[in-house]
Amino acid sequence: LSRFYDWAESEGLAAAVPFTVTTGKRMVQGRLVEIRHNRARLRRPKPHVKVQYLESDFADLFRYGLAGLGPDGLEDATFRGRFPGRNAAMGGLVLGTGMRSREFTHLLVHEVPPLPAEPTEVPIPWVVPEQAAKGRKVRTTWIGYASLAAVHSYIALDREMSRGSWRPKRPLVVEEADFYGGRVNGRRTRWTALRPEERLRLVGPEGGSQLLALSYDGRPFVDWGTLFRRTARRIRERFEPRFPDVAPHRCRHTFAMATLEKLVEGHYRQAAQLAAATGDASGLALYLLKADPLLILRDLLGHSSVVTTEVYLKRLDVHRIYRAAWERTHAVIDAAALAEADAEFTEEF
Q: pLDDT tens digit string along 301-321?
């Protein structure tokens, strides 16, 4: 490009070279020659323009990529990855619960909530393991029916095929396991009392890790950061050049924005009203009807206060959500009501 502008300037086609150029001298084959150096550099993006979360279309594209599918949801003939069922189910779990990497990586298969008998719009509660949570704070997040169904499908099919006889050096053998706990080396233990390093050592009586995500021969799979980055890179190279890098925590940001958007739009409130009308007296339905969106999001993310949630959201494009909600609402508001509201600001006191 520098040579092009040098030529254009010499031919009188350009008034000047649009770069900062410095000159100097150096020895070339025993002779002192003058050289020119272009000081121009590609601009680096500023922190505020970095992609912090995935929009809904990019989130869907990421799910498809984890499953080895193309943007149209059909099989990608160039996909050469392994365990697409596991990857897609866990990706949906992370995007649907907002769990941190440490939290979802050490989930046990026994801790997966049961799937409701019928599809529901009201999200299903999911207790985050206390010892794996940040600050060891107990909290309950939630997950949508479709995402939870995908996890159960993975457990019944792909995970069953990955079971093996793997054992760590100091195994903790699990027997009589249920949703709350099991006998670990002969002693009844609650899952919430187990630290991440202990969870990695849990195996069945015949071997095989008790973690939700398995690799070959029943080995636990924990390298989600690498898997997500490789998936994002493949999407960028094959389908969408604008697709950003994806780390587990970016999925958490995506969950926060998607959840807040539904809360602001009243999606979950409508679902809770429908559940109440059909006889669902669950505490979650009542909670959705009564609580403020920021308070709900605070509890889901496990923040210590709503101020933390507000600061967290300020770093994301939260104004877009409220602006979009207002635009949708504005379109259906009665014209007389709008005129009356406008009149309040035109009157002089």
A: 888 888 888 777 776 666 666
> Which of the 8 DSSP states describes residue 82?
S
Cβ–Cβ under 8 Å, residues 58 and 251: no
Q: What's the one-letter identity of residue 104?
A: F
Domain boundaries defined on the chain: 1-38, 51-165+211-239, 248-345
Q: Residue 20: pLDDT above 90?
A: no
For 170-208, write each residue's pLDDT tens digit: 999 999 999 999 999 999 999 999 999 999 999 999 999
Quick one: which of 86, 43, 75, 66 has its CA closest to 222?
86
**Count of all residues that appear for the chain in the document:** 349
Residue 224 has a CB neighbour count (10 Å cut-off) of 19
Assign 27 to helix, strand or coil.
Answer: strand
Beta bridge partners of 27: 32
CATH code reported for the domain at 51-165+211-239: 1.10.443.10
Helix axes 267-277 and 248-265, enclosed angle (nearest 10): 60
Give the C-alpha separation, 60 to 257, whole Å: 15
Predicted TM-score of the model (pTM): 0.75
Token couple for 345: 């600001």
Q: How wide is the angle at C-alpha 24 spanned by C-alphas 18 and 25, nearest 5°?
A: 145
What is the predicted pLDDT for the residue at 280? 59
Question: What are the DSSP calls for 230-276, one per residue?
Answer: HHHHHHHHHT-TTPPP--HHHHHHHHHHHHHHHHHHTHHHHHHHHHH
C-beta of residue 83 within 8 angstroms of C-beta of residue 162: yes
Q: What is the pLDDT of residues 34-65, one digit of tens each?
A: 877 777 766 655 544 466 889 999 999 999 99
Token reading at 16: 């000047």
**Residue percentage of the chain with pLDDT more than 70:** 80
DSSP 174-221: EES--SSEEEETTEEEEGGG--HHHHTTEE-TT--B-BSSB-GGG-B-
DSSP string, 128-183: EPTTTSGGG--EEEEE-HHHHHHHHHHHHTHHHHH------SS-EEEES--SSEEE
The answer to whether residue 83 scores a pLDDT higher than 80 is yes
